[in-house]
């Protein structure tokens, strides 16, 4: 299969090591991965702020860049969900529809498409996993705690393959961190309080690292940890699964 690697703009600009880890992990699993050099923002910031009409150029460029791939994989649940639900191209609707049905967040691609059973990675640390709202409630990467239903976690399933990694419990395992894209700008005080509560849950259970599938949420938590002068670090799940972060 031919894979198109979709790297969100904030990952490209601020956390390129996450993009590299994602590429390396997919290649270790024997995949033919291509990175379209002309890709830019998927348009989510404009759409989330109520200016979806200004994202049409992003939609057209995204369609042009990724229409030829069997699957599109990205280390970002929020960007993937945006593309799944909102990508449209008036000039090439069939290509946009193809992409909407073939774009996957990294963890769901590994579990649902590749059906990975084993990973060569080791991470001898206590790790707390933050499940982002888009990933959980939009992509259904894990079960929502308010439902009386069978519990599951696709990222947790993968992390349990990592040697010597201790996945710690949390009191409120699916609580929002408060980032919410532009929400952290328009409702700064609420966002910070939510982030502090999320961090405290991890600290209470003695996490050494906080991981997740969205660097946007982890960036928010990282800022709070730094202001608290905490030794706890954040790391994207791709870096752990790839064995590139020790």
Short description:
With 246 residues, this protein is of the alpha/beta class.
Pick out its properties.
246 residues, alpha/beta, Rossmann fold, four-stranded parallel beta sheet, 13 helices, 8 strands, 46% helix, globular, Cys_rich_dom, Glycolate oxidase, oxidoreductase activity
CATH architecture of the largest domain: 3-Layer(aba) Sandwich
As laid out across the biggest beta sheet, the strand order is: 2-1-3-4
Helix content range: 40-55%
Q: Beta-sheet strand percentage?
A: 5-15%
Uncertain stretches: none
Structure description:
This protein is of the alpha/beta class. It folds into 2 domains: 112 residues, no CATH class; 117 residues, Rossmann fold. Helices cover 46% and strands 12% of the residues. The chain has 13 helices and 8 strands. It has a 4-stranded parallel β-sheet with strand order 2-1-3-4, with helices on both faces. It has a 4-stranded parallel β-sheet with strand order 6-5-7-8. Helix 11 crosses helix 12. The longest helix has 17 residues. The protein is globular, with a radius of gyration of 18 Å. The chain starts with a strand and ends with a helix. The model has no long low-confidence stretch (mean pLDDT 94).
């Amino acid at each position: 299969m031919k894979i198109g690697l979709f790297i969100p703009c904030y990952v490209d600009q601020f956390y390129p090591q996450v993009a590299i880890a994602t590429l390396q992990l997919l290649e270790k699993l024997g995949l033919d991965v291509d990175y379209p050099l002309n890709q830019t923002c998927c348009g989510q910031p404009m759409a989330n702020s109520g200016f979806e009409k200004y994202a049409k150029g992003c939609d057209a460029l995204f369609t042009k860049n990724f229409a030829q791939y069997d699957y599109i994989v990205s280390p970002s649940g929020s960007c993937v969900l945006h593309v799944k639900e909102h990508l449209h191209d008036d000039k090439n609707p069939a290509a946009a529809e193809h992409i909407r049905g073939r774009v996957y967040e990294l963890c769901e691609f590994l579990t649902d498409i590749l059906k990975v059973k084993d990973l060569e990675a080791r991470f001898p640390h206590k790790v707390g996993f933050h499940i982002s709202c888009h990933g959980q409630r939009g992509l259904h990467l894990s079960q929502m705690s308010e439902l009386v239903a069978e519990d599951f976690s696709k990222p947790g399933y993968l992390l349990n393959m990592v040697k010597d990694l201790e996945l710690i419990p949390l009191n409120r395992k699916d609580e929002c961190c408060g980032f919410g894209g532009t929400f952290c700008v328009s409702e700064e005080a609420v966002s910070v309080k939510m982030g502090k509560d999320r961090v405290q849950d991890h600290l209470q259970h003695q996490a050494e690292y906080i991981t997740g599938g969205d660097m946007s949420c982890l960036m928010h938590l990282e800022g709070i940890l730094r202001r608290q002068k905490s030794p706890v670090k954040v790391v994207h799940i791709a870096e752990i699964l790839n064995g590139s972060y020790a």
